[in-house]
Amino acid sequence: MNLIVPPEFLDSGGLNVREFVTAILFGAMMTDDLSDLSDVAAFYDELGKKTLSAWEDEYKTHDDVQTACHIVGHTNCVLDLACGYGRVSLALAELGCEVYGLDISPVLIADAKADSNHLKNLHYSVGDMRELPYEESFFDKVLCFWASFAHLIKEGDQLACLNEIYRVLKPEGYCFMVLMDPSHEFWQTLLSQSDSRVVFPQYYKAHPPIFVHNEETLKDLVGKTSFEKFELERRTMNHSKRLVMHLYKR
Ligand SMILES: C[S@@+](CC[C@H](N)C(=O)[O-])C[C@H]1O[C@@H](n2cnc3c(N)ncnc32)[C@H](O)[C@@H]1O
User: Fold this and answer.
1) What's the CA-to-centroid distance between 118 and ligand 1, angstroms?
2) Could you tell me if the CB of 44 is within 6 A of ligand 1?
């Protein structure tokens, strides 16, 4: 069993016994309940910026960046969750707000940092979207592009992530999350071969499994979180159909 002591305990200048026991129990709970995602990190480490940027080329990225900039507007502080090599974070930081990019792949974060040394308002970290290294009520907005959430295939992992997004959002905060459109023929074919909503795409070797949500499964999931309001929308983004989730903290 690995133990994780949440940073807020360590930053407080010392632990009393009660805090120490709570920290140990918290650490045990987090590490034992969550899945090992090292295969996902290794997959993206191997792809690196070169392959990912070829998949989602400049033309498509331009569309995502426009959407992101429109959402962020005059926002002060935004999290690009599962930011990859930073194609969205970089454009947002150029708008002038404080941008935090977090990704589980050290290689992609290194690629992202290499492109952004000149920007003091862009902060990258290697980390896990189920255990965010930020204080509560830190962000005005959280964005999660290109179906990154689909890598969480267990409900416990998905809830951990949504609860973390809720925790780090300020009151009146908003999260924009892009998922794949389950009605697309590609996902329909894979779903027909699976007895659950977990599928195994074959378009690249060793692709990690993906969870394909639809409106009903998302409604059930979000109903188990603290989000007071959410909306779902099918929309065409970067020339593909997507299912978009809007989450609001009150
Ligand atoms: C398809 S890429 C999208 C990257 C980025 N959002 C974009 O639009 O360019 C999916 C990303 O999710 C990241 N990822 C997967 N699971 C993660 C986790 N548990 N925590 C943080 N990042 C994760 C991967 O490393 C990868 O960079």
Assistant:
1) 23
2) yes
Residue span(s) of the chain under CATH 3.40.50.150 come to 37-248
Asked whether 142 and 78 are in contact (CB, 8 A), the reply is yes
Q: What is the spatial distance between Cα 44 and Cα 22, in angstroms, rounded to a whole number?
A: 34
pLDDT tens sequence across 114-169? 999 899 999 999 999 999 999 999 999 999 999 999 999 999 999 999 999 999 99
| Contacting residues for 212 by C-beta, under 8 A, at least 6 apart | 150, 180, 182, 187, 190, 191, 197, 198, 199
Instruction: Work out which ligand 1 atom sits closest to the CA atom of 105.
Output: 25
* Cα separations in angstroms, 104 against 13, 183, 211: 28, 28, 18
Q: 37-248: what CATH class? A: alpha beta
The protein residue with its alpha carbon nearest to ligand 1, atom 10, reads 148
Ligand 1 lined by 68 (C-beta under 6 Å): no
Which tokens sit at 98? 């404080």
Q: If you search the block for the tokens 């920007």, which residue do you land on?
A: 119
- pTM for the full predicted model: 0.87
Q: Where are the beta strands (DSSP E) in the chain?
A: 77-81, 98-103, 122-126, 139-144, 169-180, 198-199, 210-211, 229-237, 240-248
